């Protein structure tokens, strides 16, 4: 007998809290509509958004209809959840631009083309036309301020300050759920664990206004075995936009997964079956973790950037580590003119100007400590001149430490 989607989500580690486990399990015996929201607060999603995306993928894979809700309206307010201070207020133009930028990123994961396929909606469509007095009268009267202040997303902010515009966020998210219930027959909202209070508010609003039954399911906050938040690195966020994080760097992020996190990340962030993942665990015990990490990195990169980009990233990783051709396209690159390099550029300046190091002082320190390489040869001094003699096949390969590479293309 095939597992239900709830059983699969449970086995793969997606479930943190459920509003009504028995009721949701019964509802999932039939095809349902579910949704997860994504506020466009930046021009790209990052790996921190992958968990709700992959939960929607699993829902669709098991015959249910997912809705991706872009928060073009709620992003104008700012979600206080998980924040110790007020979010920066974005302009309307910034929100519109961000919404358009991230819209295409969901196409890699979900099928929007088939009949009854996934829907991609923008809550600005129904939030912006609302009139304030009508909204307060029809929606606001169903909310208890005492209950709202008891929610973790608000309670944790009382010490540092919670402004009135943020205080409205719960009402707007609850109204989103109500609107999708009314127009799309959506009965399940998925979200991060910090959204629990907002999700319950939506369920309660549906019950009060329509006598309807809806459900909420929250996903765990993913921290690595070392205790850091998933996706946070020294270089900053790992973006899904290939212009912000190259497929090669994205692949390397997954390759660098701690051994203790590999199985969990395979379950959450790939579409490999549980049986396939168990077989990989047996391989890890016999042959070590590196082979399995390559599977994780390839599968995760293929989902986000496509099979071809994943293949190129994998080939680039092999070539830079084994020295058999470091000129593949997926390496992060900077173009320099032949004339610019002719007179020689001090290594620490080149490392900083290409972005391989955050600053020239960081580059000096790296090279002084023996961590700077050109064409896989360790630099002897921070001010060693890099010039035309270092060009190989039109490229100079820079390396910081063991795994950070940058390709300087000479034209």
pLDDT averaged over residues: 86
Overall geometry: globular
Give the helix proportion (percent range).
40-55%
Q: For this structure, what is the CATH class of the largest domain?
A: Alpha Beta
User: In which order are the strands of the major sheet placed?
Assistant: 1-6-5-2-3-4
**How many DSSP H or I helices?**
19
Radius of gyration of CA atoms, rounded to a whole number: 24 Å
Q: End-to-end distance, in Å?
A: 61 Å
Count of discrete structural domains: 3
CATH superfamily of the largest domain: HUPs
Structural class: alpha/beta
Proportion of residues in extended strands: 5-15%
CATH topology of the largest domain: Rossmann fold
| Major sheet summary line | 6 strands, mixed
Which architecture name of the largest domain does CATH use?
Answer: 3-Layer(aba) Sandwich
Pick out the low-confidence regions. Answer: none
Counting DSSP E segments of at least 2 residues, the number of strands comes to 15
């Amino acid at each position: 007998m095939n597992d239900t989607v709830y059983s699969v989500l449970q086995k793969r580690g997606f479930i943190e809290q459920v509003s009504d486990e028995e009721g949701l399990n019964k509802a999932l015996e039939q095809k349902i509509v579910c949704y997860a929201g994504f506020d466009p607060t930046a021009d790209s999603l990052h790996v921190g958004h992958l968990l709700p995306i992959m939960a929607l993928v699993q829902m669709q894979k098991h015959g249910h209809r997912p809705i991706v809700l872009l928060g073009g309206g709620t992003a104008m307010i700012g979600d206080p959840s998980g924040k110790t201070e007020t979010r920066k207020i974005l302009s309307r133009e910034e929100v519109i631009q961000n919404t358009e930028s991230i819209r295409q990123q969901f196409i890699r994961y979900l099928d929007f083309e088939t009949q009854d396929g996934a829907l991609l909606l923008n809550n600005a469509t129904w939030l912006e036309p609302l009139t304030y007095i009508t909204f307060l009268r029809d929606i606001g009267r169903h909310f208890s301020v005492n209950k709202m202040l008891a929610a973790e997303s608000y309670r944790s902010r009382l010490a540092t300050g919670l402004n009135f515009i943020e205080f409205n966020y719960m009402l707007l998210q609850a109204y989103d759920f109500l609107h999708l219930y009314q127009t799309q027959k959506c009965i399940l909202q998925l979200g991060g664990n910090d959204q629990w209070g907002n999700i319950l508010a939506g369920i309660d609003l549906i019950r009060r206004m329509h006598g309807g039954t809806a459900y909420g399911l929250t996903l765990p906050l993913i921290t690595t075995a070392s205790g850091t938040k998933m996706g946070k690195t020294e270089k900053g966020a790992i973006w899904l936009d290939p212009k912000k994080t190259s497929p090669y760097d994205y692949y390397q992020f997954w390759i660098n997964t701690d051994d203790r996190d590999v199985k969990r990340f395979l379950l959450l962030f790939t579409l490999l079956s549980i049986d396939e993942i168990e077989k990989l665990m047996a391989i890890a015990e016999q042959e070590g973790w590196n082979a399995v990490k390559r599977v994780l990195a390839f599968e995760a990169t293929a989902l986000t950037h496509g099979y071809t980009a994943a293949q190129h990233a994998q080939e680039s990783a092999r070539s830079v580590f084994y020295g058999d051709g470091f000129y593949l396209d997926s390496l992060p690159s900077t173009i320099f003119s032949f004339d610019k390099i002719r007179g020689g550029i001090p290594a620490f300046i080149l490392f900083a100007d290409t972005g391989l190091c955050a600053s020239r002082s960081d580059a000096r320190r790296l090279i002084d400590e023996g961590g700077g390489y050109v064409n896989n040869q360790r630099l002897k001094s921070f001010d060693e001149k890099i010039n035309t003699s270092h060009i190989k096949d039109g490229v100079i390969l820079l390396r910081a430490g063991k795994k950070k590479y940058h390709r300087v293309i000479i034209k």
